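Example A, followed by Example B.
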Amino acid sequence: MCDVLHVDASVRALSNDNPDHDSISKKLARRFISELKKHTHIDEYMYRDIGVNPPPFITQDWIGAVFTPKASRTARQHQILAQSDMYIAELAKADVVVISSPMYNYGMPAQLKAWFDQIIRINETFDFDLARGDKPLAPLMSGKTLVIITSSGEFGFEKGGINEAHSHLVPHLRTLSKYLGVDQIFEVASEYQEFADERHTKSMNMAEQELSVIASVLAEKKSVKLK
């Protein structure tokens, strides 16, 4: 049993009139959720398609509201932070966070960065204490598992791969993950989309197999905790 927060970041729909325009990352994420449901009971499933319904960008007024003590915030400031509060509440509930994202220009889509900007908030998901010296930031949540599902037109973004130096999607997600309260990370990637050859087909098949295994592993992990 677990609570799942599923965030899709692709601007493409899951299915389109032209199947070549279908979102690969969303398709794989949907496959993972289906596999997870086969292995364990999901108590609450929270879904955000931020590619289609993007979070607002933070502004100077947003920052002003964040750094105003909660008891002193105006009605307008509470309104400004309402979406952020909702995102954080969803994250706080989740045991498993699933983020699916295509690689855009070697990094994350602007919509996904906007979601992180709304969530990584002082005194909500991290605190700041100069007594910690040169590393004053510390996450306030813990115990969560993150499943990262990515798609890319090229290939070789893994450690030692030919495009490792251009890999700014997963490394960025890993850096930010601690402020989501993540202790365990699984990564699955589909590559070669632009090549549209047998390598892409093989990569998709391998990604689906890996996601099935991860679903089984997570279900077993939850089962052990309940015993």
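Example B, a separate protein, is given below in the same form.
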Amino acid sequence: MTAGADGTPGGIAAAGSVPTLHTLSVGTAGPRVAFLHGLFGQGRNWSQIAKALAGPDGDGARSTLVDLPDHGRSPWSGEFSFAAYADAVAATLRGIDADAKWMVVGHSLGGKTAMLLALQHPELVARLVVVDIAPKSYGSLERFSGYIAEMERLPLSALTSRGDAEARFEEPNAGVKAFLMQNLRRDGDTWRWQANLGLFSADAAKGTGSVIADWPTSAGDLPAFDGPVLWVAGSESEYIRDEDLPAMQALFPKVRQLTVKGASHWVHTDAPEVVVEALRRFVRPLADGS
């Protein structure tokens, strides 16, 4: 494991610095694989997939589960930037294995970060897997505004226990509730959100000016990534549309798409067996040394 750049989880990274991100490791041998989670997620959300990829002997792959900046135990940012997120992931992966070529898997926010990582640091990325996100603007963070508002309404200073917090948190979807509540942490007698809620709330308040919902125009000035790319979509998700393919092909000419039947935006949660098998096949050339 690695801690925040300042030694404390959730600390503010110094201006202009590239923070070292918190990670978890799964597997003992095999190709290097990095997993990047979505908004309000944590690296450990990929634990089930990473363990399956490692296999019973742990030698199928060596996976690194990354807490992105402003999430989990990684340092917070003063302002959101996909380029800075990608640089932080790059620095963290180099710190783990300076000579490795990685297969990078990213979902949603992590998928955009993974795409920019491949474009900004192609020497690090051998293969790229983008899960249910496209290189485009999604307009705003409207999909998350209700979640953010409910998180902000939770009276942290009045909480007596996690059970009390869960009872007060008014989210009818049990899966979404559990996902968001994983960000709640207790420090002695006080409670805090581990994710940088203030930063995300301020971005959501920008409406169509949201940076998180957008795609950085700087990506178009970078050379296309020439490595193999697997683009995984959920058939029941609205995040990827047919008209997104030309933009994806322009940046990633060797892209091929896999649509998982019956899966929502949370493809790896809805169909873990399908995702694991797809990753096994996609990482195999690295295992074979090709």
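On Example B: The radius of gyration is 18 Å.
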